[in-house]
Design goal:
Blueprint lengths: L16 H5 L11 H13 L2 H20 L4 H4 L2 H9 L15 H15 L4 H12 L12 H12 L10 H10 L5 H15 L9 H9 L7 H8 L5
Helix pairs in contact: 2-5, 3-5, 3-8, 3-10, 5-7, 5-8, 6-7, 7-8, 10-11
C-alpha cells in the first residue's frame, strides 16, 4: 500500500518505496493495478469536489474500522472497501448518468468496470450492493461489513458520527483532499441529473428530497445546512 497524496495537491508524489513507507498511515490507499485504475477512473471523470469526497470516504471508513477494532485484512479485503468507497458516486459522472437513481446507476457502472478488469463475480456483487445502498440509512448497516463501512465512511464526510476521527487525522485528510464545497457540489450534480431525467428522482429518494429542498425556502438542502454548521464545513 502507498500514499497517492492529494487529487489536487501540489506536493510531489513519493519517489520510491522507502519514501512511501514513511508517509502518514492516515492517507494510505491500496497500491495495486486495479486500485490505480479505479482512482484514475474517478479522478478523470468526477468533479474534483466529488472525487476528493470519494477518497475521503475510504480514508474515514478505514479509520472507523480501526476505531472499532476491525481487522480489515482478516474480516474484509481492504481493496473491496476501497473500490466501494472510491466508486460510490461514480453515478454522478457523464458515463454514469443513465435512467435509474444515481446510486444504482453508479453501482451498475462500477460493476461493469470491475468485471472488465477481471474481478470475481462475488466481489463485484458485494461492491455493487455497497454502492447501490450507500444512502440507504437503516438498511446499509444491516447488510454486512462492506456495505456498512461504505455507508458510514461516506456519512462521516458529512460529519455524521465523526467522533471516531481525531482533529489531527481530519486535518491531514482535508489538507490532502480539500473539500471544495463538496456537499453543495454533490447536491448540484444530483439535482441536475434528476431534473434532466425525472426517473432518477423517485419519491423518497435522496434526489427527490434534494430537489424539493432546493425549491422551497431557505432553498438549500438539509445536507448543505448540516455541513455548513458541522465540524468539517461544506
Amino acid at each position: 500500500m502507498t500514499n497517492h497524496g492529494s487529487l489536487t495537491s501540489t506536493a510531489a508524489p513519493a519517489k520510491a518505496d522507502a519514501e512511501a513507507c514513511t508517509a502518514s498511515d492516515v492517507l494510505v490507499i491500496p497500491d495495486s493495478p486495479l486500485a490505480r485504475d479505479v482512482l484514475d477512473l474517478v479522478t478523470s471523470t468526477e468533479s474534483v469536489a466529488v472525487a476528493n469526497h470519494s477518497v475521503r470516504s475510504w480514508l474515514f471508513a478505514r479509520l472507523l474500522a480501526r476505531h472499532r477494532g476491525i481487522d480489515l485484512d482478516r474480516e474484509l479485503a481492504p481493496e473491496l472497501l476501497f473500490h466501494a468507497c472510491v466508486l460510490h458516486d461514480i453515478g454522478l459522472t457523464d458515463s454514469g448518468d443513465r435512467h435509474q437513481r444515481f446510486e444504482v446507476d453508479g453501482a451498475d457502472l462500477a460493476a461493469e468496470f470491475l468485471t472488465g478488469k477481471g474481478m470475481a463475480a462475488k466481489d463485484v456483487d458485494a461492491v455493487w450492493e455497497a454502492i447501490a445502498l450507500h444512502t440507504s440509512v437503516g438498511i446499509a448497516q444491516r447488510l454486512g461489513l462492506l456495505t456498512e463501512l461504505t455507508h458510514l465512511g461516506s456519512g462521516i464526510d458529512f460529519d455524521l458520527d465523526s467522533a471516531c476521527i481525531t482533529d489531527a487525522q481530519a486535518a491531514e485528510i482535508h489538507r490532502a483532499y480539500p473539500r471544495h464545497s463538496s456537499t453543495t457540489a454533490m447536491a448540484d450534480e444530483i439535482i441536475a441529473q434528476a431534473r434532466r431525467r425525472p426517473e432518477k428522482s423517485l419519491p423518497y429518494t435522496l434526489a427527490a428530497a434534494q430537489i424539493r429542498e432546493r425549491e422551497t425556502p431557505p432553498y438549500t438542502t438539509a445536507l448543505e445546512a448540516s455541513a455548513n454548521a458541522g465540524r468539517w464545513g461544506n
